[in-house]
């Protein structure tokens, strides 16, 4: 049994918890996930099973879609509602929908983002949240991200509900804090749901209950990687022996046999030659 299962991760579960449940249901140890979701976040979690785990790096999408809620007037050390309150001010009833939309529009595009201290980013081999829990300080470098689109879905007093389409590596918690600051308030994220990861959408996910009742469909690896450009070869030995392929194709390329089965992922070397990055047979 090889392939991908799309899970609608509920609140309160870590991504690793979901992997554990899939292992128990499918009676296999070889399970991994793409794109971590915090326990306070729900939504699309791409889970790979058995041979599909070889393709994890190619299924960790470059772009994600979220719906999130900003709570104005409260800031915490974790940038969400689970943290210790650092600042709290009453809502002044001074914002309008036009002003909120105007500020949100300023966050569209390429930019530098400072990740939250309570994150799994490693500095000197140690995760940031480990420094934070130990009360230690460490220099954090801003990261390059891109917000492709951002819009206000609803606005009522001290809460802003927004839809965000962003690049991989974007921290929505940091985005919420930065937007609140631009509006003149301390703020944090109070809700988050991932609605799409690359080509994988929330409506195609199954619940944990459905998973445990064996009510799910597994996506074949060939179908899961269908979004990649592809190249069909006649002689499969080229792939099995790790030989290069002459081609001007750019990016990650799915190399297929005559039957349409993906044998490996190749990448451009820069001189019109593709090299084998990962075999998938």
What do you see in this structure?
The protein has 281 residues and is an alpha+beta fold. The protein folds into three domains: 3-61 and 199-223, Pseudouridine synthase; 63-197, Pseudouridine synthase (2-Layer Sandwich), CATH 3.30.2350.10; 228-279, PUA domain (Archaeosine Trna-guanine Transglycosylase, Chain: A, domain 4, Roll). Helix content is 20%, strand content 38%. The chain has eight helices and 18 strands. The chain has helices at residues 15-26, 56-59, 97-105, 128-133, 172-182, 208-212, 221-224, 237-240, and strands at residues 3-9, 31-34, 41-49, 63-72, 74-76, 85-88, 109-113, 122-123, 126-127, 143-156, 159-167, 187-197, 200-201, 230-232, 245-246, 252-256, 262-268, 273-279. Strands 1, 2, 3, 4, 7, 10, 11, 12 and 13 form a nine-stranded mixed beta sheet that branches. A five-stranded mixed beta sheet has the order 14-16-17-18-15. A two-stranded antiparallel sheet has the order 5-6. Strand 8 (122-123) and strand 9 form a beta hairpin. The longest helix is centred in the N-terminal third of the chain and has 12 residues, at 15-26.
* Terminal-residue CA separation: 14 Å
CATH top-level class of the largest domain:
Alpha Beta
E-strand count: 18
Q: Give the number of domains.
A: 3
Uncertain spans = none
Report the mean per-residue pLDDT as an integer. 94
CATH architecture of the largest domain: 2-Layer Sandwich
Classify the secondary structure makeup into a structural class: alpha+beta
Keywords summarizing the entry:
nine-stranded mixed beta sheet; alpha+beta; Pseudouridine synthase; 20% helix; 281 residues; globular; five-stranded mixed beta sheet; Archaeosine Trna-guanine Transglycosylase, Chain: A, domain 4
């Amino acid at each position: 049994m090889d392939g991908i299962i799309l899970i609608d991760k509920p609140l309160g579960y870590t991504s690793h918890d979901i992997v554990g449940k899939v292992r128990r249901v499918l009676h296999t140890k070889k399970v991994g996930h793409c794109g971590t979701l915090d326990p306070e976040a729900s939504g699309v979690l791409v889970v790979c099973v058995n041979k599909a785990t070889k393709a994890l790096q190619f299924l960790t999408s470059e772009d994600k879609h979220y719906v999130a809620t900003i709570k104005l007037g409260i800031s915490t050390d974790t940038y969400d509602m689970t943290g210790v309150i650092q600042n709290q001010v009453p809502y002044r009833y001074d914002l309008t929908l036009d002003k909120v939309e105007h500020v949100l529009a300023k966050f569209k595009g390429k930019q530098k983002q400072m990740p939250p201290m309570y994150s799994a980013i490693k500095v000197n081999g140690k995760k940031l949240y480990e420094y934070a829990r130990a009360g230690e300080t460490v220099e954090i470098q801003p990261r390059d991200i891109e917000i492709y689109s951002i819009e206000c879905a609803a606005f009522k007093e001290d809460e802003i509900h927004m839809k965000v389409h962003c690049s991989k590596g974007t921290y929505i918690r940091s985005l919420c804090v930065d937007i609140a600051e631009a509006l003149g308030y301390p703020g944090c994220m109070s809700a988050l749901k991932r609605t799409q990861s690359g080509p994988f959408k929330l409506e195609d996910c199954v619940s944990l209950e459905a998973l445990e009742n064996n009510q799910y469909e597994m996506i074949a690896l060939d179908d899961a990687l269908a979004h990649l450009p592809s190249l069909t070869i006649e002689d499969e030995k080229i792939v099995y022996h790790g030989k290069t392929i002459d081609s001007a194709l750019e990016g990650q390329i799915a190399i297929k046999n005559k039957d349409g089965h993906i044998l490996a992922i190749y990448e451009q070397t820069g001189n019109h030659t593709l090299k084998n990055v990962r075999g998938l047979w």
